[in-house]
Amino acid sequence: MKWEDNVRRVVPYVAGEQPNKPGMIKLNTNECPYPPAPGVAKLAAELDCDALRLYPDPDAGSLVNVLAEYYHVRPKQIFTGVGSDDVLSLAFMTFFNGDLPILFPDVTYSFYDVWAQLHRIPFQTCPLDDNWHICPDDYRQPNGGVIFPNPNAPTGILESLETVEEILSANRDVVVIVDEAYIDFGGRSALYLLEKYDNLLVVQTFSKSRAMAGMRIGFCIGSEKLIGYLNDVKFSFNSYTLNLPAQQLGAEAVRDDAYFHSVTGRIVSTRERVKKELRVLGFSFPDSMANFIFASHEKIPAQQLFAALRDANIYVRYWNRPRISESLRITVGTDEQMDTLLTFLRDYVSKAL
């Protein structure tokens, strides 16, 4: 049909399954296995529904001010959006407008190439080394911008801040985005580099460590100039991106720092225990500093394991793609959920070998 000649066509991002089955164990989308902070539930029950007839604060001031105090930056250095995906997409639209390709790893968050295609941005992937690490020298070539997650997804590998700064120092003329969706589970944030690099944008989310994936809250921190440009694009696109409950409940989640550290501590403890158990069963994996483990078995194909787990109502993530087709990404759940997973794997592995 003629009208199809004018359709923008892209290969869409494919999210993890969102099944809803009794007794299932859902370890495929890196959600937090614990509820949000108690104050979030209390405030949700007390929300003034009459206020929902009004548009929310377009500047998300109640949330931005709490974030600014927590991260010791100025409110004008913070930008919020509907999940970090919204923030990242707007950042692509705002900052990656040159003729040169943007750079990101070949094994990484699979939304990056989708946004690049959607916004018609040329891009080039840089291969991770054999140990799944970024090669900083690959990012010294002429480019229109750089983005990478730290820790990376789906590998869980954490790059040192020395590596991050090496990439930043080699790319002073373009915007460098560090996607820190998983930084709260290991490592130090690149935020401390903001004073030195005005072209650095650090993106984080409430979906993982703050247990609020269902609220869709993301934010980024950068220089006031970068955030100003982001706001110009946002207010040319949609002024009211973050709804009122998200702003209020998000601020409450940030206020309960003790609960936040309790949850991340529990997940890290479970992750390290499960790593040991998986090694005994013949699995190998990069040393994840995220809330998941990217595991492969030395003798059992990943696709076979994925199907067997799914039949047992245990959902993990699998990609049939180059370099990663023999690995499964397993979200770290509660201790009880992971014990069920391990029990299944012990039985399956013993029968398969």
What would your notes on this structure say?
With 353 residues, the chain is α/β, with parallel strands linked by helices. Helix content is 35%, strand content 14%. The strands form four sheets. It has a five-stranded mixed beta sheet, with helices on both faces. Strands 9-10-13-12 form a four-stranded antiparallel beta sheet, covered by helices on one side. The chain has a two-stranded parallel sheet with strand order 1-11. A hairpin with a 7-residue loop joins strand 9 and strand 10. Helix 1 packs antiparallel against helix 7, helix 2 runs parallel beside helix 7 and helix 3 crosses helix 6. The mean pLDDT is 96.
Structure at a glance:
This protein has 10 helices and 13 strands.
